[in-house]
Amino acid sequence: MKKLVFIVLFSMLGLAIISCKKDDKAPAPIADFDFDTLSTEPGEIKLINKSTNAVRYNWSVSQNGKGFTYSNDPNPTFRIKNNGSYEFTLSVDNKNSVTTSKTVSISINNSSFVRVYGPNDPDLVWYCNKISNSKDTEDLYINCENGLSSISITLPTGYIEGKTYDVLTDKGFAISYHNYFPDQNYVDSYLTKNIGKLKIIKATDSYIEGTFDFVAENNSTALSFTNGEFRVIF
């Protein structure tokens, strides 16, 4: 009888151990991240870890298949010296050493730029190929050209880092869009009509950057520009 009880207890203990081993199996990790280039210095990129079920993180940066920078920090910031497109990869492990990864291609720009979606097309990127700016005691003027079109942004003196302004409603803030027709010696101008937002993300003595969106009108025609970003280095 004692032998039978011992066998039953031993079997129950074995089942308990097996059950514990099953419970130790961790959920599969999911690698995910976002990035921020506007709240950092030019050429810096802040990586925002959004992974789940992970306990270890391994970041790598490469260009054209050549890796050159690594980090195990959950939320690192990288400084990229040269402009170009880079592949950022996050590999994560769970507590059972199961690994998964995610790679995102990100363009790094250490110079002045203006980028916005539109006009009237949320998938069309409008990007400057020539930027000029002038700064006097009153206003900062940013003129961005793309072929025969341009966007002009006016920022009055006294703008505050971190503040969002209503274009034209707040005195002095203005954005306009222009189309040029050289063969007709004509400029078709679209001006904001109190519809637009401009946020100053960072303002230093050496550069300013922010976000914007606006609707520009010309008589009965309205053009919408969204998700705009700009950086101007003085």
Walk me through the structure.
The structure is a single chain. This protein has 234 residues and is mainly β. It has two domains: 33-108, Immunoglobulins (Immunoglobulin-like); 113-233, no CATH class. Helices cover 9% and strands 56% of the residues. It has one helix and 17 strands.
Percent of residues in helices comes to under 10%
Number of helices: 1
Question: Unreliable stretches, pLDDT < 50, 5 or more residues?
Answer: 1-22
Largest sheet entry: 10 strands, antiparallel
- Provide the domain count: 2
Mean pLDDT across every amino acid position: 82
Shape: elongated
Strand fraction equals: over 45%
Oligomer: single chain
Tags for this entry?
about 230 residues, mainly beta, Immunoglobulin-like, 2 domains, 10-stranded antiparallel beta sheet, 4-stranded antiparallel beta sheet, 1 helix, 17 strands, about 10% helix, elongated, disordered N terminus
List the helices and strands and how they pair.
Elements: H1 2-23, E1 33-36, E2 44-49, E3 56-63, E4 66-71, E5 77-79, E6 84-93, E7 99-108, E8 113-117, E9 125-127, E10 130-135, E11 139-146, E12 149-156, E13 164-166, E14 174-181, E15 186-203, E16 207-218, E17 221-233
Antiparallel strand pairs: 1-2, 2-5, 3-4, 3-6, 6-7, 8-9, 8-17, 10-11, 11-12, 12-14, 13-15, 14-15, 15-16, 16-17
Question: Short summary of the structure?
Answer:
The protein is mainly β and 234 residues long.
